[in-house]
């Protein structure tokens, strides 16, 4: 069964695109068929996955109805990609029709059977693109930094998630919060992590056990059109992403409830 995952946070610079490329590279290495959809007008995911956008249909054309999603798919070295470009930034004003929240879900339905995982990289804004991503997805991954502003972004995101679940996609779940550039030695890290757990509880989710450390290799990989998994497979961050993917594809752990112990009734001593 195909799993559709949106990586989201309205705060920019928290590692959404890095998380997407890490997911795509790691899942592909496991032999999974992966489609990456770039919903950010900056097109960073397309660039990071090494695809050429020029003279190709993009997700903008798909959302506008100029082509079907299959026409926009580029077969890259890491995975298949539906690229983005700057035209996407004007989509909010151009999409005014009834049912605009369901366009992406309908299009994904045409190619869903061809993939094991579809990864959506969302823009750092609560726009029609974000709503489309949530409506089309099964799960959300929320990357964040151990900073107060990053934490605030998640708190604001909560209302949007609840609204989408109520009106457009009742099956949507938040798979977890992923901590990026994690440094356990900092006092602020522990403080923010505790507050993040409170928000995770409100979202009925948890913080992933795997945390991603800061790495120069992560910053270098996009320039080579590679994910951290293929660019520097032996570095600490690559191993952490592999651990994160293993955690992600495993069924969520369910809390075990203590068994009830039935006490035997003592004999009343009446001789019966």
Explain what you see:
The protein is an alpha/beta fold. Helix content is 40%, strand content 13%. Strands 3-4-2-5-1-6-7 form a 7-stranded mixed sheet, sandwiched between helices. It is globular, with a radius of gyration of 21 Å.
Number of distinct helices: 12
- CATH fold name, please? Rossmann fold
CATH architecture label: 3-Layer(aba) Sandwich
Q: Helix/strand-derived class? A: alpha/beta
Order of helices and strands: EHEHHHEEHHEHEHEHHHH
Fraction in helix:
40-55%
Strand order of the largest sheet: 3-4-2-5-1-6-7
Report strand %.
5-15%
What key phrases describe this protein's structure?
Rossmann fold; seven-stranded mixed beta sheet
Short description:
With 272 residues, the protein is an alpha/beta fold. 40% of the residues lie in helices and 13% in strands. Helix 1 (16-29) packs across helix 12.
Topology:
Blueprint: E1 3-7, H1 16-29, E2 34-38, H2 44-48, H3 59-64, H4 69-72, E3 74-75, E4 80-82, H5 91-94, H6 103-111, E5 117-121, H7 128-136, E6 139-145, H8 148-167, E7 173-180, H9 187-202, H10 216-220, H11 228-231, H12 236-249
Parallel strand pairs: 1-5, 1-6, 2-4, 2-5, 6-7
Antiparallel strand pairs: 3-4
Helix pairs in contact: 1-12, 6-7, 8-9
